[in-house]
From TrEMBL:
It holds the Pfam family Abhydrolase_6. Transmembrane segments: none annotated. Residues 50-270 form the AB hydrolase-1 domain. Keywords: Hydrolase, Signal. This is Alpha/beta hydrolase. One of its GO terms (molecular function) is hydrolase activity. It comes from Streptomyces chartreusis. InterPro entries: AB_hydrolase_1, AB_hydrolase_fold, Sec-Metab_Biosynth_Hydrolase.
Length: 281
């Protein structure tokens, strides 16, 4: 401020010329700094953004240890807040998030989140890879509930607790929770009892609409996919996971894990995400 006031008082041609020269230098420096900054930003964002979509009976905190490792490895990460209200509505919410991201995306889904990403990525040109972690990969017209009953081994029908709800439009539905007393063995047998208790208390319900709504045309038909199969999963049995992953021509890896693979085996989840990310150009 002091220099500016002196320049305003001294209106000689020489001073004006000096001011112009200083201004030119400042502009040049600013442009150079902006270019350097842009280059730095570009180099920092050279890796694709990883978008994580949780499933029913969980929330975004289920990705915490995966997020930590991805961030340490230099990946931009976003964990979507999945509404768990309907496949089409949840997919639309995730699709809006995808549209806000510059550059390529690796889209990752756990459990019911797999159905959401299969629909959200359709027509989203920046999604270059899909990763399914103990997740559903529905085909057109298939629902999560129908798929879960297609193969033996899922206990989901025995552990759910329905809570009647009224939607904003007045329609009746149910929020489904996993019974807290059954959560540990059903959802996350390989996490500690204390962790399972916390997960059971903080679980977010999925509606009957979400679990029964048929999928649209899935994006895995056109986007390369990876699938991490939990062989000890009691929510989505191994045989069902393998069936869906093979049908999608996904790159399949298997691990001895419960359904809570993002919590019990974050290293394995991170590894398969980064394998998919390294194929993105």
């Amino acid at each position: 401020m002091y220099r500016h006031s002196r320049l305003r008082r001294a209106r000689t041609p020489l001073t004006l010329l000096a001011t112009a020269a200083i201004a030119s230098a400042l502009v040049a420096t600013s442009v150079g700094s902006a270019s350097a900054s842009k280059g730095t930003t570009a180099s920092k964002s050279a890796k694709p953004t990883v978008v994580l979509v949780h499933g029913a009976f969980a929330d975004s905190s289920s990705w915490n240890d995966v997020i930590k490792q991805l961030k340490e490895d230099g990946y931009p990460v976003l964990a979507a807040a999945n509404p768990l209200r309907s496949v089409s509505g949840d997919a639309a919410a995730v699709k809006n998030l995808l549209a806000s991201i510059d550059g390529p995306v690796v889209l990752v889904g756990h459990s019911y989140g797999g159905a959401v990403i299969s629909n959200a990525a359709r027509g989203a040109d920046n999604v270059k890879a899909l990763v399914y972690a103990d997740a559903f990969l529905p085909d057109t017209g298939e629902s999560v509930n129908e798929l879960a009953s297609r193969f033996e081994g899922s206990v989901i029908g025995d552990v759910l607790r329905p809570v009647p709800i009224t939607k904003p439009d007045g329609a009746k539905d149910f929020d489904f929770y996993i019974d807290q007393s059954k959560f540990h063995q059903a959802f996350g047998a390989d996490v500690s009892a204390n962790t399972a208790r916390m997960m059971a208390v903080t679980q977010r319900p999925g509606t009957g609409t979400a679990l029964n709504e048929p999928s649209g045309e899935p994006a895995w038909k056109t986007i390369p996919s990876w699938a991490l199969v939990g062989s000890n999963d009691r929510i989505i049995p191994r045989e069902l996971q393998v069936f869906m992953a093979e049908r999608a021509n996904a790159h399949i890896e298997e691990i001895r894990s419960s359904h809570a693979v993002t919590v019990s085996h974050p290293d394995a989840v991170t590894r398969i995400i980064e394998k998919a990310a390294r194929t993105v150009r």
